[in-house]
């Protein structure tokens, strides 16, 4: 039987505020345990949560970026469950009236047509603390520094049809929150993570199959693998005569399997109700308009501009706008290079990203700045060096030997464009290789490459390749 | 709508309330009465009434995004039954 995969994602993005969502405690990562957990975060008696203005602004920014309705009057609710890293016995969240309503995002899997994915809602809530299960004499250690950190939970419609689409959607949201500067996107530190609701149904069936929820996926790779493994498990189960149970599962990356979290089963009844400690959040049109004016150029618009104004292809523009840092780098390099944005795109996507990849570095940590790369490309564009020599210059810049002009000067890499000089070399080569010349003239045209190689060898790669080709053709024609 | 003994036991468990088995029938009656009252209120036509999220007719006040709290861990942890290495210790919870 042919199966259709149905996936919905719940993404948790930690908002990049300085203080917590309902208290004045710091949200800085990595502090000593419980030094950033104040009376409000600990849920001590008599405290009152007060909402962080910046968290609201960030949520509205996100809503506007996905064309969503901003709820004029949204409500905070208590989600009740007991767990030691949730000291109040409830998490303050939003339920019936989230701050961001229905919106949408366009995604594209390589080689496929773009698809619009629905976003059901996005709501504000507080994060819980951390449980440390290492050995504390049979006890669990609780660090509440993270408790009360603002989260935006972004819930998609069950519109995703493969693990690849789920990853494309997650990457899209990841890039968007960074463009908007509302989340640092750091997945290792847990600033951006997701739960995946996964089900399968026979192709063509309208009703959804029973879903399972895979919790706490904190890398793109894990999302893809966990979903594929869960899909396989569900299909095997159904084809073997079994039934999928609605449950929460954990992905174990070491064993590459998902397993049931039975302990969570009973806690499913969250008994949401409006939090009496918090009044409704009112957002008026003027405020929304002001936030709209403050939005930066978003990835899709930037991609469109790269295609229309810089002449990039769809794919290149997509890669280069995937993160704001990369797009900024590229634009800066183009500006310095002067012209030929496509050449700049090729260098950034090929040599630069390749080199960064090999050493496991991000674009922000690149030893070759946008200005350095642009400066080198300017020298290709004005024919000072050839593309081939540029590889050597790039490597020198990568190793910190200065800018392109210095390197070209010091190493004598300037391209030979004096056609008289090139002609002289060609004449010499023709004179000393009569056999090859004869064969070439008799029709063995692939020998042309041999002559090019000889010229390049004689000029240490510095002859202008276009000129060499042209002159060689003339001379060999006899 | 009314509740039965199973509902009472379940709600008590979810709320981590210890209740006396002998009191369960009384809770069943009390809670059923409350639900009956709610049912009665359901008969009122509220189609054009905006649901009230809070008894006060006011909007949430917002605070600026500033760190105003200082570290008071030692004072808070003095209240805790067990602490170690800055962590609050609780009976082992395993996933």
Account of the protein in words:
The complex is a heterodimer of chains A (478) and B (95). Chain A has 478 residues and is α+β, with helices and mostly antiparallel strands. Chain A folds into 3 domains: 203 residues, no CATH class; 115 residues, no CATH class; 58 residues, Arc Repressor Mutant, subunit A (Orthogonal Bundle). Helices cover 40% and strands 19% of the residues of chain A. Chain A has an 8-stranded mixed β-sheet with strand order 6-7-10-1-11-12-13-14. Chain A is elongated and about 95 Å long. Chain B starts with a helix and ends with a strand. Chain B is flat, with a radius of gyration of 22 Å. Chain B is α+β, with helices and mostly antiparallel strands and 95 residues long. A two-stranded antiparallel sheet of chain B has the order 2-3. The mean pLDDT of chain B is 92. Chain B has a domain of 38 residues: Histone, subunit A, CATH 1.10.20. The chains are: A alpha+beta (478), B alpha+beta (95).
Summarize the structure.
The complex is a heterodimer of chains A (478) and B (95). By secondary structure, chain A is an alpha+beta fold.
């Amino acid at each position: 039987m042919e199966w259709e995969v149905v996936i919905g994602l719940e993404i948790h993005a930690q908002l990049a505020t300085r203080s917590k969502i309902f208290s004045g405690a710091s949200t800085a990562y990595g502090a000593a345990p419980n030094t950033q957990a104040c009376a409000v975060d600990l849920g001590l008696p008599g405290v009152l949560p007060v909402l962080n203005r910046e968290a609201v602004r960030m949520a509205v920014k996100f809503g506007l970026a996905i064309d969503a309705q901003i709820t004029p009057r949204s409500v905070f609710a208590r989600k009740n469950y007991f767990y030691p890293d949730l000291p109040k016995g409830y998490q303050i969240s939003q339920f019936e009236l989230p701050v961001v309503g229905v919106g949408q995002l366009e995604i594209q899997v390589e080689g496929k047509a773009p698809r619009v994915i629905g976003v059901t809602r996005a709501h504000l809530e507080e994060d819980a603390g951390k449980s440390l299960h290492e050995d504390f004499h049979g006890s669990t250690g609780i660090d509440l520094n993270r408790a009360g950190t603002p989260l935006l939970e972004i819930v998609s419609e069950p519109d995703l049809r493969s693990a690849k689409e789920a990853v494309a959607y997650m990457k899209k949201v990841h890039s968007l929150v960074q463009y908007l500067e509302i989340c640092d996107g750091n997945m290792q530190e847990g600033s951006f993570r997701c739960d995946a609701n996964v089900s399968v149904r026979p192709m063509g069936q309208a009703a959804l199959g029973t879903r399972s929820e895979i919790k706490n996926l904190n890398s793109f790779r894990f999302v893809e693998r966990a979903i594929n493994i869960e899909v396989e498990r569900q299909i095997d189960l159904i084809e073997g005569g079994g039934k999928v149970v609605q449950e929460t599962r954990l992905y174990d990356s070491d064993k590459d399997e998902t397993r049931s979290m039975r302990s969570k089963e009973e806690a499913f009844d969250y008994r949401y109700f409006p939090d009496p400690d918090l009044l409704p959040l009112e957002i008026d049109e003027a405020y929304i308009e002001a936030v709209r004016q403050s939005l930066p150029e978003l990835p899709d618009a930037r991609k469109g501009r790269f295609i229309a104004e810089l002449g990039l292809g769809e794919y290149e523009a997509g890669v280069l706008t995937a993160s704001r840092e990369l797009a900024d780098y590229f634009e800066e390099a183009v500006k310095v290079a002067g012209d030929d944005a496509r050449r700049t795109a090729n260098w950034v996507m090929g040599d630069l990203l390749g080199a960064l990849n090999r050493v496991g570095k991000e674009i922000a940590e690149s030893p070759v700045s946008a200005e350095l790369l642009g400066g080198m490309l300017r020298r290709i564009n004005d024919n000072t060096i050839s593309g081939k020599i540029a590889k050597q210059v790039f490597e020198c810049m990568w190793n910190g030997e200065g800018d392109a002009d210095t390197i070209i000067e010091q190493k004598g890499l300037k391209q030979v464009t004096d056609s008289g000089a090139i002609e002289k070399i060609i004449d010499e080569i023709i004179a000393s290789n009569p056999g090859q010349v004869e064969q070439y003239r008799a029709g063995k045209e692939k020998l042309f490459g041999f002559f090019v190689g000889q010229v390049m060898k004689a000029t240490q790669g510095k002859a202008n390749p276009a000129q060499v080709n042209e002159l060689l053709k003339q001379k060999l024609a006899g | 709508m009314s509740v039965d003994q199973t509902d009472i036991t379940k709600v008590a468990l979810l709320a981590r309330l210890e209740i006396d088995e002998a009191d369960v029938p009384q809770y069943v009656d009390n809670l059923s009465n409350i639900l009956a009252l709610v049912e009665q209120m359901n008969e009122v036509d509220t189609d054009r009434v905006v649901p009230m999220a809070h008894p006060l007719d006011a909007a949430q006040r917002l605070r600026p995004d500033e760190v105003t709290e200082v570290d008071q861990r030692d004072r808070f942890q003095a209240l805790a039954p067990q602490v170690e290495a800055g962590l609050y210790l609780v009976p082992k919870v395993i996933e």
